[in-house]
Amino acid sequence: MKAMILAAGKGERLRPLTLHTPKPLVRAGGVPLIEYHLRAIKSAGFEDVVINHAWLGQQIEDHLGDGHQWGLNISYSPEGEPLETGGGIFRALPLLGDEPFLVVNGDIWVDFDFSVLMKPLKGLAHLVLVDNPPHHPGGDFALIDGQVHNDAAQPRLTYSGIAVLHPQLFAGCTEGAFKLAPLLRDAMAKGLVTGERFGGRWVDVGTHERLAEVEQILAVKS
């Protein structure tokens, strides 16, 4: 199974840090955020990683290179202007192949064990969900008996930014910017999205306050 790290966002809420540094290279505990993912992906047994980028993307390529220092093979999918989550993954499909692949948002910090996702995919997507954080109290999707539903009447969890997707999820899509969520909702309506709840540490590093939260976690761990 291949892995993809989504790294094309501008990180506008992290300015001025992201004025001259792409968000995935912003440091927490002295380490660029994206390197935590690379270490975890390697530890889980993955070998091939695709990284998309847009804002200051050449810095990401210059910093990470071909991935050999982590024992990985890194390929890049440059976008120029961001294509949003769905469009970015769609453009990278030729690099990802015909089998299900792991997708991880580059702007999260998590102590999730990615190896648990290296198993056959039932349907078109498998989502990792977390308890709703204070900045997103309404959640995204409901998880019922291992199936993910877009049901507002049920208690909802938050999509963590970690998933396994099948390329067929993007059947019929065309090049350009589009979101992933509508594709997932369509697949949910057909019963083709499974999921699991992760109860460990997870931070959506979208603001200075949440970056400081990761710093605090790392300080305790060290």
UniProtKB/TrEMBL annotation:
CDD domains named among the record's database cross-references: NTP_transferase_like_1 (cd06422)
E.C. number: 2.7.7.-
A Pfam family recorded for this sequence: NTP_transferase
A molecular function GO annotation: nucleotidyltransferase activity
Stretches assigned to the Nucleotidyl transferase domain: 2-136
Coiled-coil regions listed: none
Keyword list, A-Z: Nucleotidyltransferase, Transferase
Top-level EC class: transferase
Name this protein carries in UniProt: N-acetylmuramate alpha-1-phosphate uridylyltransferase
